[in-house]
Amino acid sequence: MMFERAAVALILSLVVAFSGGCSLLRGKPPSTATPVMEQERRFAGALQYLIQGKEREAQGLLEQVVAGQTLPGVTDEALFRLALLHLRDDGGKGDTHAHALLVRLKKEFPLSAWTRQAAPLAAYLVGVGALRDSQHDVRTLRERNLSLTRDNKELRQSIERLKNLDLELEQKIKR
User: Whole-model pTM above 0.70?
Assistant: First the structure.
């Protein structure tokens, strides 16, 4: 009888052990990253790249963060940091792109600390844009002024020629 109880206990414990093992394997799906976790992972990677001085790599990850799902505390800081990175772009388009990112930051996250920190930079970039536009206007006006100066010179020369022709004509008529 003792043997039978021990055998039953052993069989029951084996059944419980084996059935529990199957449910453990079947019950948990493989770990999948949620979009929020993915955004946070990209942002953390971008910060690591910035610490290492790898700005291009950081810029790529930050572009992915701001293009992805909006996540307060992550997307707002990513917009700010990406705007700063775009300030280094050559050709003057970096300022424009940085300003557009700061405008988006203000629109989407009006109460964020990053929006408040970005306000002076956004104002500065507006001034830089106005200065760039003024410089373009000055260049255009200089070119027009030069063109008008040439036209005036040609007109003076034409008037002088006409005066000379008129004098010659008067002299021929008097003869």
Answer: no
